[in-house]
Amino acid sequence: MDSLRTARARLKSAQRVVVLTGAGISKPSGIPTFRDAAGLWKDFDPEEYATPQAYARNPQKVWEWYAWRYKNVMQAQPNRAHALLVELEEQKGEGFLLVTQNVDGLHPRAGSKRLVELHGNIARGRCETCQERFPLPDPAHFTPPPTCPACGARGRPDVVWFGELLPPGAFERAERAFAQAEVALVIGTSAEVEPAASLGRIAHLSGAYLIEINPEPTPLTRLADCALPIGAVEGMEALLG
Ligand code: APR
């Protein structure tokens, strides 16, 4: 396991840098994770709220849960870790790609541009008929379900549910970037949900220098060249500060 000094040097000199983030990066912004002690899946059964079958059974119940999360997310602010990733993107330019599993929209709100939202975005709806994607109304004026602005049919949350395919091309773009990266940085994910969880392994097997920031060990930790057992804000400040 390399030292922080080596990780800092590798990150500084690399031209092709990729990042994968999970719910842990947004926890300091007050947004709950899923599998932590106080995670969402402790109180809400994903089978009841985050599958196409759950939505088909009871769309209003699923929508009310997403509308609640949407309101909470829109009250949260990006934190220092999100901001430091924007700085890293500005340093690396074309050689940078941020891939997130998060649907909270904190990365784009922080200013990240070279971004792939693998699991969609909770602030958007998607028409069940014509597939049009559209921004949801402001949470204060939002009573679910939304109607499609293009055809008037009902919209669903524009997020990827368990058992669903990722947005077309999203994973392919991410996979290509992780296979070509010199440094891969994995922040705040339990690395349990595929296909996102495979990205760290792909980078490692392709010879990238792998850095993990997570207070807890994950299946990726043993592959990491440098594993920082600290939070996202502290880890990003240690690497870039
Ligand atoms: N900084 C960094 N990591 C943290 C912090 C923190 N301050 N606090 C907790 N963590 C770590 C936890 O140790 C855990 O490994 O964040 C991780 C969160 O893991 P999960 O809750 O499983 O979230 P995530 O990995 O993003 O889940 C992946 O699963 O439920 C689906 O679609 C959902 O996108 C989500 C996917």
UniProtKB/TrEMBL annotation:
Q: What is its main location?
A: cytoplasm
Q: Which coenzyme or cofactor does it need?
A: Zn(2+)
Gene Ontology molecular function terms on file: histone deacetylase activity, NAD-dependent; NAD+ binding; protein-malonyllysine demalonylase activity; protein-succinyllysine desuccinylase activity; zinc ion binding
Pfam families per record: SIR2
User: Where do the annotations place Zn(2+) binding?
Assistant: C127, C130, C148, C151
Q: Which residues form the Deacetylase sirtuin-type domain?
A: 1-241
**Cofactor binding description:** Binds 1 zinc ion per subunit.
Q: Write out the annotated subcellular location.
A: Cytoplasm
Question: What would be one Gene Ontology cellular-component term for the protein?
Answer: cytoplasm
Where, by residue number, does substrate bind?
A: Y66, R69
- Which residues take part in binding NAD(+)? 22-41, 101-104, 188-190, 214-216, 232
List, from the UniProt record, the residues annotated as the active site of this protein.
Answer: H119 (proton acceptor)
Keyword NAD in annotation: yes
Please name the InterPro entries in this protein's record: DHS-like_NAD/FAD-binding_dom, NAD-dep_sirtuin_deacylases, Sirtuin, Sirtuin_cat_small_dom_sf, Sirtuin_class_III, Ssirtuin_cat_dom
Key words of the record: Cytoplasm, Hydrolase, Metal-binding, NAD, Transferase, Zinc
What Enzyme Commission number(s) does the record list for this chain?
Answer: 2.3.1.286
Q: Which reaction(s) does its UniProt entry say it catalyses? A: N(6)-acetyl-L-lysyl-[protein] + NAD(+) + H2O = 2''-O-acetyl-ADP-D-ribose + nicotinamide + L-lysyl-[protein]; N(6)-succinyl-L-lysyl-[protein] + NAD(+) + H2O = 2''-O-succinyl-ADP-D-ribose + nicotinamide + L-lysyl-[protein]
Question: What does the entry note on its domains?
Answer: 2 residues (Tyr-66 and Arg-69) present in a large hydrophobic pocket are probably involved in substrate specificity. They are important for desuccinylation activity, but dispensable for deacetylation activity.
Recorded hits in PANTHER family, A to Z, give: NAD-DEPENDENT PROTEIN DEACYLASE, NAD-DEPENDENT PROTEIN DEACYLASE SIRTUIN-5, MITOCHONDRIAL-RELATED
Fetch the NCBIfam families from UniProt: PRK00481.1-3
Q: What does this protein do?
A: NAD-dependent lysine deacetylase and desuccinylase that specifically removes acetyl and succinyl groups on target proteins. Modulates the activities of several proteins which are inactive in their acylated form.
Q: Which HAMAP family match?
A: Sirtuin_ClassIII (MF_01121)
The family note in this entry says:
Belongs to the sirtuin family. Class III subfamily.
Protein name, please? NAD-dependent protein deacylase
Q: Which organism is it from?
A: Meiothermus luteus
